[in-house]
Amino acid sequence: MSSPKLVGLTGGIGSGKSTVAKIFEILHIPVYYADDRAKWLMNFDQELKSKIQEAFGTDSYDSEGNLNRSYLASTVFSDTEKVAKINSLVHPAVRKDFEIWASHQNAPYVLKEAALIFETGGEKKLDAIINVSSPLKIRISRVLMRDSHRSLDQVNHIIDQQMPDEEKNERADFVIKNTDTKMLIPQVLAIHQKLTP
């Protein structure tokens, strides 16, 4: 069994990349959801847990050994140096986990769904990148509708941390335009045909 091509699926918050991932899954393409997996690894990967505790103190986990999200949110995510530090621990763990997972998949290609691929240099380990692109206004209204706990300021802050759509589109191998006027399924099918030998 030859190993599958590794394809990144990215897009800014509210771009609709999860919806696109679901369409690929209907085509029997395995999808690795990097953000969900990162949360799992931060709770269950002993090596990663000890590195996080070493870097941010024992308060990073509660007495049950679960990640202390509120502590990390208050101490880490307001400090760019600490964000860079936690990313430098979590991203390599996710990358390794993804490679192991991908090696067990029987498909022409697999998708790694992640908000930050170009921002973390993750594209170097992938064979191709698909960017889901959507107008900023539409993205913001989608997120505000979906995540009632987020304010407009918080959404704008997340967008500011991500690479601009135009730059992602230039660097990606494929671009899916998720607007109110373009159908997603034909765009996904066209890419699927190109990636399937």
Q: What multimeric state do the chains show?
A: single chain
How much strand? 5-15%
Total number of strands: 5
Distance between the termini: 14 Å
How many H/I helical runs? 9
In CATH terms, what is the architecture of the largest domain? Answer: 3-Layer(aba) Sandwich
CATH level 3 topology of the largest domain:
Rossmann fold
Report the sheet with the most strands, covering strand number, pairing sense and barrel closure: 5 strands, parallel
The gross shape turns out to be globular
Low-confidence stretches at least 5 residues in length (pLDDT < 50)? none
Organism: Algoriphagus zhangzhouensis
GO molecular function: ATP binding; dephospho-CoA kinase activity
Family: Belongs to the CoaE family.
Pfam family, one: CoaE
Summarize the structure.
This protein has 197 residues and is of the alpha/beta class.
Break the fold down into its secondary structure elements and pairings.
Blueprint: E1 5-10, H1 17-26, E2 31-33, H2 34-44, H3 46-56, H4 69-75, H5 80-103, E3 109-113, E4 128-133, H6 136-146, H7 152-161, H8 165-171, E5 174-177, H9 184-195
Parallel strand pairs: 1-3, 1-4, 2-3, 4-5
Helix pairs in contact: 2-3, 2-5, 3-5
